[in-house]
Amino acid sequence: MSRRKGLPAASDVHNHALKARAAWISIASNATLIVFKLVVGILSGSIGIISEALHSGSDLIASIIALVSVRRAARPPDPSHRYGHEKVENVSGVIEGLLIFGAAIVIVYEAVTKLIDGVHLEHVELGIAVMLASAATNLAVSRGYLYPIARRTDSAALEADAAHLLTDVYTSAGIAAGLVLVKVTGLELFDPVLAICVAVLIMWTGWRLIDRSTRVLLDEALPDDELELIGEKVAEHRGQLIVGYHRLRSRRAGSKRHIDLHVTVPDDMTVAQAHDVAEHISADIAELLPNSDTLVHVEPRSHDPRDDRP
Amino acid sequence: MRVEHDRAEDDRLKARAAWVSIAANGVLIAFKLVVGVISGSIGIISEAVHSATDLVAAVIALVSVRQAARPADRRHLYGHEKVENLSGVIEGGIIFAAGVAIVVEAVQHLISGETLDHIPLAIAVMLVSAAVNIGLTAYLSAAARRTDSPALRADAANHLTDVYTSLSVTAGLVLIEVTGRTFFDPVLAIVVAVLIMWTAWRIVSSSTRVLLDEALPDDELAVVRATVAEHRGELIIGYHKLRARQAGAKHLIDLHITVPSDMTVAAAHQIAEHIENDIAERLPHTEVLVHIEPGSHERRDES
């Protein structure tokens, strides 16, 4: 039986608020960057810096997607979503991955165009300064804030948003490095070449995000270490409350874990006793892994003799 | 907790249907290339490229029905069926991109004004292509219905959009021949593109719903409820927390049933198996997991 009856546990409510706040901060920092780049771009008249504002615009869209998905994921189960809405976060992970991938393709395309047409750089110092400010902001928001919250709340959407912002750090730092090299060596070739290196790195990040989200959407099992923890915990009751267990299955949905297993008990145990055992095991697992929903199927020993083996 | 006995046959049927789709697209590509090269019509050669994207989609369908057929393994204990739903999303994305490409081309034609060549030949190629795709769509739809396969359903939808495309291009070309006005071709193309994007959206949406663990359709849930309710009073006090989701053609259901608290586990388990089997019999490809609760414990049983 699920430990949750009706209302979500207090810690879940807290997590939802935490996740939503993190998503809002990502939106705010992107909005600030857009204004900053627009103002500097218009004042200096640099098309390059104005187009950087466009880039932050796509980040703003991504962080809005993160906000929408953590809010949707927080909704309680309803008649058409009895397992909850948590997987919305994983779908948003796929979408963010695709956005990141798309951004990388645009970068490659632009870089190749520059390689062919030659580079026309202007306001190089100002460009470097804007890039560094942007990189510092994104690095602070991503590594300093979003990633820790994503880990703490186990949120796939925030993790995706953090990964997205980190790719922007790569981009800004890569472009800044390119501009410095151009300034020092006088070879304008460095700008597009570094851009392509950054794009490859970004594609890799996008691919990892899509891969991770897709695994959850395909109901892949929990990581081995978590499964081992569960197995050990359940096995502790072997010989006392239960004869044994088998068919332990698990999957994730956003920050939630769904687990089900069969436990075997003596045939003549009453349903009331068996249910106490099942509740006990569910509670044990919930203590071990937060945000888990466990379904225990009780079987009589005679039905499945394989659990009798030590 | 069991899978239907005809599962293996369904898997074979699905793989065969996917192969037929691949073969049909291969033939269409060859046909369009030969006619295009002989006539020198760029339009017909670019149609071959279009069939090539269909071939890619058909290969995705084949890969996904084969992957979905693999038995549950250590890392995928609920099975691999959701691969089909993922492939539905990918096919939907490809169809949508095709719609966008058509709009872009049509707008370019509208702006530049176009030069059409080999109109009668193009009409003939389009009609042959439409005929092949109509046959293929009918076959794939039937196979998809029979096996409840989302991947085949998506592939069928993809080929149906090709029928729309071919027929509208034909209609556009005929109108140009008759009226002499060349703008018919791009205008019809845009109408078709909207239709195609709508189809793509439907496929993406239905696949995503499954990936998000949406409940079974109401009529199937009603069957499950009726089946469980038959046991009420006689064997069980009631049931609650009935949850159901899909994965490809598979249905995964779990529910809590309440029985008298002094009943033995052996007796209760027999009831649970009975209910699991009854549901699996009425709803093919279904896995049921029953959680037994003592009667006094829960008061939320559905009436």
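qc> The radius of gyration of chain A is 25 Å.
qc> done
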